Amino acid sequence: MKPAEPMHYSGVVVLARPGALDGCAAEIDSIDGVDVRLRDESRGRLIAVLESRDAQGQEDLLERIRRAESVMGAALVYHYVDPGAGEAPDGEPDGGSR
């Protein structure tokens, strides 16, 4: 059994363009590796969780969010690396047995 590969998780606050919160949430949620978890209707903000295998993947996801047409801005507020949350290179989940 091979050890699992690390996974990177980030929390991002996204500010939607005025009147575009629904479209912004749908646009961002459609990006692989991004999950919109909370909506603040009164302030036009979203909280999204990003998930990737490495730091470059996190940067790429954040940049895709920032470039979305319905987004005014996005800020990284939290980043965590779980050293063994991903799948092992042999395709078995960490702790799996054969």
Quick structural overview:
Helices cover 22% and strands 38% of the residues.
Strand composition percent: 35-45%
Indicate the low-confidence ranges by residue numbers: 92-98
Distance between the termini: 9 Å
Give the SSE string: EHEEHE
Helical residue percent band: 10-25%
Number of helical stretches of at least 4 residues:
2
Secondary-structure class: alpha+beta
Shape: elongated
Give the C-alpha Rg: 16 Å
Mean pLDDT: 89
Largest sheet: 4 strands, antiparallel
Strands, count: 4
Q: How are the strands ordered across the major sheet? A: 2-3-1-4
What features would you describe in this structure?
With 98 residues, the chain is α+β, with helices and mostly antiparallel strands. It is built from two helices and four strands; from the N terminus they run βαββαβ. A four-stranded antiparallel beta sheet has the order 2-3-1-4, covered by helices on one side. β2 and β3 form a beta hairpin. The longest helix has 13 residues, at 55-67. Mean pLDDT is 89; it is low at 92-98.
List the helices and strands and how they pair.
Elements: E1 7-16, H1 21-29, E2 34-40, E3 45-52, H2 55-67, E4 71-82
Antiparallel strand pairs: 1-3, 1-4, 2-3
